[in-house]
Amino acid sequence: MELTAFDKELLNVLQGGIEFVHKPYETMANKLGVSEERVLNRLTELKKAGYVRKIGAFFNSDKLGYSGTLIAVKVMDEYLDEVAERINEYPEVTHNYQRRGEYALWFTFITDRPERQAQVLAEVKALPGVVSLMDLYSQKKYKIDVRFKLK
Fold first, then answer.
1. Rounded to 5 degrees, what are φ and ψ at 126?
2. What's the confidence (pLDDT) of residue 148?
């Protein structure tokens, strides 16, 4: 599926944020000069095609009492998929991805209870095929706003 000019406009507006109003997609449609139905239908198609993964809110987790961490996992190659699937079962995991290198599996984890974090990390460390893991907790956050300007 090739992105149309309208798709690019829609995705640019979407990346700018959805207004917190009663009918956010109608507001978005008004900005684009189209119907709300067109916006909703096209977003559905873009999601099915893999251009949109998720539409949701971002919260300042620290202010809500949560803390997050980045975990690097060293896994035996033959267990990588199985370990990744098990990690994905935890609702506190927000991202999970594979990288090249000794520590091939990386995931982000967020919780409001330190004891829960310790429990999950111990469970992950005990999974078959896991050699070791590193908890790369953040000491200071440097937030950036990433938007991909589509032309």
1. -85, -5
2. 72
95 is catalytic: yes
Beta carbons within 10 angstroms of residue 20's beta carbon: 8
Provide DSSP, 96-123: EEE-SSSS-EEEEEEES-HHHHHHHHHH
Domains recognised in the chain with CATH numbers:
5-48 (no CATH), 67-137 (3.30.70.920)
CA 136 to chain centre: 18
Indicate whether this model's pTM tops 0.90: no
Using left for φ > 0, alpha for ψ between -120 and 50, and beta otherwise, residue 129 falls in left
Q: Which of 22, 95, 140, 151 is labelled catalytic?
A: 95
Distance, CA of 67 to CA of 30 (rounded, Å) = 38
